[in-house]
Design brief:
The protein is α/β, with parallel strands linked by helices. The protein has one domain (about 5-175). About 30% of the residues lie in helices and about 30% in strands. Helix 1 (about 35-50) runs antiparallel to helix 4 and helix 3 crosses helix 4 (about 135-150).
Length: about 180
């Protein structure tokens, strides 16, 4: 069963050269996952592809019009998201990774939902699988944080959805 997200954040760790994804669930538990550069690129591509394969877009045949519709949807979702800077101790009440530390994600998949969201399945190198429910707004906001944090990391991934200059500045956490 996919877990519902209360809050998530992404931070770049220069010592690890990885992104640290921290997710607080609706039961106040927190998971922490390391995202590598190559995995971030692959995950982002899957998320953008997911945005293009929506029932309301399937009937649009012209690629430029479809892209414009995806861009508008992205801008709308991100502009209505509350991005805040993470505060010290602002994580979950119960860190599920306290014994192991953050897990390194090796694979992931995305299953589209009819409501515009998706189920994100992440598998760590130790074999543990985590399934997260992303509504449409969380899906778009997750992409926006990946863009910002991969740029901070200077990974030269050139991630974008739509016109990046039209996007609000994505801070560290999404509430």
């Amino acid at each position: 069963m996919p877990r519902s997200i209360q809050q998530f954040g992404i931070a770049y760790n220069a010592d690890q050269d990885r992104l640290l994804l921290s997710v607080v669930m609706d039961d106040k538990s927190e998971i922490q996952l390391w995202l590598t550069r190559s995995f971030t690129r692959a995950l982002f591509d899957k998320m953008v592809a997911s945005m293009h394969h929506r029932p309301e877009l399937e009937r649009i045949q012209q690629p430029r019009i479809k892209e414009a519709a995806v861009n508008m949807s992205h801008q709308e979702a991100v502009s209505s998201t509350r991005f805040v800077k993470r505060q010290a101790g602002g994580g979950g009440e119960r860190n599920l990774m306290s014994e192991t530390g953050p897990l390194i994600v090796k694979t992931g998949s995305l299953a589209n939902l009819e409501n515009g969201g998706a189920i994100l399945t992440l598998t760590a190198i130790i074999g543990k699988t985590i399934r997260l429910m992303l509504n449409k707004q969380l899906l778009h906001s997750f992409c926006q944080l990946l863009i910002k944090k991969s740029n901070e990391a200077a990974w030269d991934l050139n991630l974008s959805v739509g016109d990046p200059t039209a996007m609000p500045d994505a801070d560290t956490n999404v509430h």
